[in-house]
Design brief:
Layout: H1 5-11, E1 27-30, E2 33-36, E3 41-42, E4 45-46, E5 53-54, E6 59-61, E7 76-78, H2 104-112, H3 115-123, H4 126-146, E8 208-210, E9 218-219, E10 224-233, H5 243-256, E11 267-271, E12 282-287, H6 289-296, E13 306-311, E14 315-321, H7 322-327, H8 336-351, H9 379-385
Parallel strand pairs: 10-11, 10-12, 12-14
Antiparallel strand pairs: 1-2, 3-4, 5-6, 6-7, 8-10, 9-11, 13-14
Helix pairs in contact: 5-8
């Protein structure tokens, strides 16, 4: 009676040999006979079973000799270079050895948290700081754009500090002219000297013509609406700065600017171009330097502008010196446009009731519009030509063409 081959193999006590601890030269027992392992040296040569196959990772399977096939029931045999003993941790219960075991309860709790809880758990205090920083940034940007975040009111932000204007107060005194009898003035004051620049007319005809054109009322005028004309002295060549119309446009646009006097609800301006409804409240007049000396005085030998409420007895004229209109002032550092806005606002300020000049309030601040910035923005210089209004205190401001510069 023959026994099936598969059963014989299962029953045979030496059917499979797999011992990773064995070294080269060890012998395996097979069927009660000593047989060399394929990894051994046999007769000085390495023998291999032709039925053996090498699988993945160098694992060799034994099959039937001469068949060229592997037997799936047999155990794999590793190559000699991979037959190393397995190692286990000496003390599996010792602390601090190897990677700590994960806390399953903690991970389960993590999975139960909301996205906000996971965010806070991950970033800690940063999770609270980031939203606060974002809110503060938005507030600062909003205040910067709208200007609502300025807690402290800048110097001269509310216009002249000399008090309310003396509207319609009768007077014939020239406002803005240098004080008479001032003998200590140094005519070489660097900041007061007329800068170099374009040509201007030294002497005009001492008569003026009205520049045609009107403008609608600007400002609320709760106290008074001032009417004015824009005039140019006959004989002046205005082509270099846009002609008569260019001068008139600069005057009208300056007085209509929200940073000008109409920021104060008391004032409104209305430009007219004839006397049919009576004389205007004042006449903004571009005038030659020699005529200015007659209308404003020349006790201090510097080119100036002024307001004369009673020129020739009945003409309220705002004299604008053409030499300054063309060349500006040293204190404005070459900014002719800003100087033109300044001289209009300053002299019109005298015409609407601000009769006094003002000093620089603090170092680095914008100069008050009623400061004589044509000559200097330093109180030390101002005290030399206007000692009644300005005291030498080493304060110097920055030039400023507007009564309300933050409007």
């Amino acid at each position: 009676m023959s026994v099936p081959v598969s059963a014989a193999r299962l029953c045979h006590p030496g059917a499979v040999t797999y011992d990773p601890g064995r070294r080269v030269g060890d012998r395996a027992r097979f069927g009660g006979q000593e047989r060399s392992d394929p990894g051994d040296r046999y007769g000085g040569q390495e023998r291999s079973d032709p039925g053996d196959r090498f699988g993945e990772h160098g694992v060799r399977y034994r099959g039937q000799r001469g068949t060229g096939r592997t037997d799936p029931d047999r155990m794999p045999v590793r190559r000699d270079d991979q037959r190393e003993p397995l190692r286990a941790q000496r003390d599996p219960l010792a602390e601090g050895l190897g990677r700590p075991r994960a806390n399953r309860d903690e991970h389960q709790q993590w999975r139960k948290q909301t996205w906000l809880g996971r965010f806070v758990s991950t970033y800690g205090w940063r999770a609270y700081a980031l939203p606060i920083l974002a809110v503060v940034t938005c507030v600062v940007l909003y205040q910067t754009v709208t200007g609502t975040g300025t807690s402290a009111v800048p110097v001269n932000a509310e216009g002249p500090v000399q008090g309310p204007p003396t509207i319609d107060a009768p007077s014939t005194a020239i406002v803005g002219a240098p004080p008479k009898g001032l003998t200590e003035f140094d005519a070489n004051l660097p900041t007061g000297i007329l800068p170099g620049g374009g040509p201007f007319t030294q002497a005009g005809a001492k008569t003026w013509h009205i520049v045609p054109g009107t403008s609608p009322k600007v400002g609320q005028g709760t106290e008074k609406t001032f009417t004015y004309t824009v005039e140019v002295e006959d004989g002046l060549d205005t082509a270099s700065f846009g002609g008569d119309e260019g001068f008139a446009r600069m005057v009208s646009e300056t007085l209509a600017n929200p940073k000008s006097w109409t920021h104060n609800a008391q004032f409104a301006f209305l430009r007219v171009d004839n006397d049919s409804e009576g004389p205007p409240d004042f006449r903004v007049s571009l005038t030659s330097p020699l005529t200015i000396r007659e209308g404003c005085g020349y006790d201090i030998p510097l080119e100036a502008s002024c307001y004369n409420p009673a020129y020739l007895g009945d003409q309220a004229r705002v004299f604008i010196n053409e030499a300054r209109w063309v060349r500006g002032a040293t204190s404005f550092q070459g900014d002719i446009g800003s100087y033109r806005q300044y001289v209009v606002n300053h002299e019109v300020g005298h015409a609407i009731g601000y009769r006094q000049h003002e000093p620089c309030p603090e170092n680095g601040a914008l100069a008050p519009i009623m400061m004589q910035q044509t000559f200097s923005t330093s109180n030390n210089d101002g005290a030399r030509f206007d000692p009644e209004s300005v005291k030498a205190d080493n304060l110097t401001c920055r030039f400023n063409p507007w009564p309300y510069p933050i409007a």
